[in-house]
């Protein structure tokens, strides 16, 4: 039997690979250079941009993070004072923990909402026209600035805001709810509002590439709707979920303005720690915090990538 | 395996809005037979198959399997299984998990379902590839896996939607033989949708020629090829000439048209000029222009042709036996 199967592959492969017509080489001057040289040349512009605008600033931050500072001056040095202060202060751990808490909760909500919206768009909306229309509808909030969208929550959620007055007039509550605004609730609400689309887009994109006959095949094999979701759609949507997760987690962990506005300066995350240091001209301390934050974010992403090999899935 | 059952379509109709895709067709697929739904694209053959599979709702009419009405049952509970045109293998699952998928959905224990999946893979000679992903297989191998995945549900009727169209010609003929062999061994009914008359003639016990949502003709391959009943069937099945004779259309097989260089004593029924000569190996096709009777094709054996070659532009005299001309429905 094995001999026979070997014969099969051989024949199949021979039949599946048509002879490629040899293409005439274009008489383009780059072709006279060795492939290695032209390859390096072609990647040079992007490499330069990345070097000057990504690598160099990060190197600068790392260098400055070792500098020293007094109340009125900063001086070049190589000392671990900033890191020592940062890593021995309980405030740091509390703030990092808070940042990770925001990231996790926002991630969970955006994932559930984003997946549901993408699923609806990809599998329940039947015509491409309606898919495009509804998708564009999702992007409309993005036509205004982040800050405006954030601030517009304040009159809605405030003590005498629309939410509270509506709930009181409906008789659901007797006194205004205090936790609606300037709380963790409002911070996370704003994050979810701001970043859900970053989850919808990649998930919708991968879902659209799922062959619809796979869903039929699952149905043909006796899978229920829920079984199709867990056994076919979610595994095939994993790359989109991962890309969306990376977007949301990095955006939330790097944010400082949302937390400031929506918590009424009552909560802190790492971004605010850095922004406070900068306001006090404590650049070395800010740089050290930024380095630690960068390492934390990279760790989180590498953990996420453990679950799915994105390069393989794309 | 499952026992073979008769499948019957009773005035089965499919409408999309106002368009009638399948128009009240009646047909009985005998238990354990190989049937081909044959027709051009848009003739309703795929809609018919998808209604039998349960992937398309039936607008009016019924589908009976072994005497019970399955019209409104979900696909997995009808006793049918479908093999999709592009195979629809789950790209994230290995070959063995693809085959075991339906068992997993039923909640069968892992060792039991894997054992059964291995048996099915052995049946289609793919057990050696159990751990591969579908993307690592060739088209023919993917098809075997898709077959195994459909057969593990022990269907009474296996539905195949253009199963060979994605393969190259060489592999298509090879898989054709294997499909037929598998059907004989399993003894269940296969219903196979195709637009290729060669495929239908080679495989089927029963050919159902469809056009415009209706069944034009159904019968054994020999009956359909030898005696088409409508002009559509005669033209679609190929190898036929459609002639007007005493005001009625008749079909005449191209190889039953007798071509002579001289009129002869019994007189020619038609004269024609030779427009083209096609050498096809064992036969030679003559493209003929018979004036008022239109364009005709005559198929000569290579032996007969080269014994007395006919050149392009020559005038020839055509006769045929009266019993070879089949009356067509108006």
From TrEMBL, chain A:
Pfam families: BPD_transp_1 (PF00528)
Main localization (coarse): membrane
Transmembrane feature ranges: 40-67, 102-122, 128-144, 179-204, 241-263, 283-308
Residue ranges annotated for the ABC transmembrane type-1 domain, each copy included: 96-304
Subcellular location per the Swiss-Prot or TrEMBL entry: Cell membrane
Superkingdom to which the source organism belongs: Bacteria
Keywords for this protein: Cell membrane, Membrane, Transmembrane, Transmembrane helix, Transport
CDD domains associated with the record: TM_PBP2
Topology in membrane: Multi-pass membrane protein
Family membership: Belongs to the binding-protein-dependent transport system permease family. CysTW subfamily.
UniProt name for this protein: ABC transporter permease
Organism whose genome encodes this protein: Roseibium sediminicola
Lineage per the UniProt record: Bacteria, Pseudomonadati, Pseudomonadota, Alphaproteobacteria, Hyphomicrobiales
TrEMBL record, chain B:
Transport is among the record's keywords: yes
SMART domains: AAA
One annotated GO molecular function: ATP binding
Keywords noted in UniProt: ATP-binding, Nucleotide-binding, Transport
Annotated ranges, domain ABC transporter: 7-237
One Pfam entry name: TOBE_2
Sections of the chain in a coiled coil: none
Family that this chain belongs to: Belongs to the ABC transporter superfamily.
Name of the molecule in the record: ABC transporter ATP-binding protein
Source species of the chain: Roseibium sediminicola
Lineage of origin: Bacteria, Pseudomonadati, Pseudomonadota, Alphaproteobacteria, Hyphomicrobiales
């Amino acid at each position: 039997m094995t001999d026979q199967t070997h014969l099969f592959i051989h024949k199949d492969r021979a039949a599946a690979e048509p002879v490629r017509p040899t293409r005439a080489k274009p008489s383009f001057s780059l072709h006279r250079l060795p492939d290695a040289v032209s390859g390096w040349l072609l990647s040079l512009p992007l490499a330069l941009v990345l070097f000057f605008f990504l690598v160099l600033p990060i190197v600068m931050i790392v260098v400055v993070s070792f500098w020293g500072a007094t109340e009125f001056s900063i001086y070049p040095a190589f000392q671990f004072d900033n890191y020592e202060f940062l890593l021995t202060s309980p405030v740091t751990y509390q703030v990092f923990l808070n940042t990770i808490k925001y990231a996790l909760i926002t991630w969970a909500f955006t994932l559930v909402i984003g997946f549901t919206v993408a699923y609806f768009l990809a599998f329940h909306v039947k015509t491409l026209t309606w898919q495009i229309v509804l998708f564009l509808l999702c992007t409309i909030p993005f036509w205004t600035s982040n800050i405006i969208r954030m601030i517009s929550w304040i009159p809605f959620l405030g003590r005498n805001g629309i939410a509270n007055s509506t709930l009181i007039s409906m008789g659901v509550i007797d006194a205004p709810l205090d936790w609606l605004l300037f709380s963790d609730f409002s911070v996370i609400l704003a994050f979810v509002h701001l970043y859900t689309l970053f989850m919808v887009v990649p998930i919708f994109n991968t879902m659209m590439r799922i062959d619809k006959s796979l869903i039929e095949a699952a149905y043909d094999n006796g899978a229920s709707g829920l079984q199709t979701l867990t056994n076919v759609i979610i595994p095939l949507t994993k790359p989109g979920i991962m890309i969306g997760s990376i977007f949301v987690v990095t955006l939330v962990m790097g944010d400082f303005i949302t937390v400031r506005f929506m918590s009424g300066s009552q909560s802190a995350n790492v971004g605010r720690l850095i922004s406070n240091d900068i306001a006090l001209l404590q650049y070395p301390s800010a740089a050290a915090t930024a380095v630690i934050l960068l390492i934390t974010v990279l760790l989180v992403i590498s953990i996420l990538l453990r679950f799915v090999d994105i390069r393989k899935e794309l | 395996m499952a026992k073979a059952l008769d499948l019957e379509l009773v005035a089965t109709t499919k409408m999309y809005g106002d368009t009638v895709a399948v128009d009240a067709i009646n047909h009985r697929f005998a238990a354990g037979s190989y049937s081909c739904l044959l027709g051009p694209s848009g003739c309703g053959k795929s809609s018919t198959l998808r209604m039998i599979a349960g992937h398309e709702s039936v607008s009016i009419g019924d589908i009976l399997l072994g005497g019970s009405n399955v019209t409104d049952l979900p696909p997995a509970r009808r006793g049918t299984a479908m093999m999709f045109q592009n195979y629809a293998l789950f790209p994230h699952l290995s070959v063995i998990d693809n085959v075991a998928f339906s068992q997993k959905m039923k909640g069968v224990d892992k060792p039991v379902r894997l054992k059964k999946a291995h048996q099915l893979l052995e049946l289609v000679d793919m057990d050696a590839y159990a751990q591969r992903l579908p993307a690592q297989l060739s088209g023919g191998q993917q098809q075997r896996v898709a077959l195994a995945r459909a057969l593990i549900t022990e269907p009474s009727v296996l539905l195949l939607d253009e199963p060979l169209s994605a393969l190259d010609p060489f592999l298509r003929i090879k898989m054709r033989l294997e499909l037929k062999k598998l059907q004989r061994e399993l003894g269940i009914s296969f219903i196979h949708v195709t637009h290729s008359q060669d495929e239908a003639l080679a495989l089927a016990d029963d050919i159902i020629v469809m056009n415009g949502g209706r069944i034009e003709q159904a019968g054994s391959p020999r009956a359909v090829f030898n005696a088409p009943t409508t002009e559509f069937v005669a033209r679609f099945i190929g190898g036929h000439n459609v002639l007007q004779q005493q005001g009625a259309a008749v079909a005449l097989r191209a190889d039953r048209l007798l071509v002579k260089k001289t009129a002869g004593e019994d007189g020619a029924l038609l004269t024609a000029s030779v427009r083209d000569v096609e050498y096809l190996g064992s036969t030679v096709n003559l493209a003929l222009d018979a004036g008022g009777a239109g364009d005709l094709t005559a198929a000569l054996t290579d032996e007969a042709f080269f014994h007395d070659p006919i050149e392009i532009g020559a005038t020839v005299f055509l006769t045929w036996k009266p019993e070879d001309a089949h009356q067509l429905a108006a």
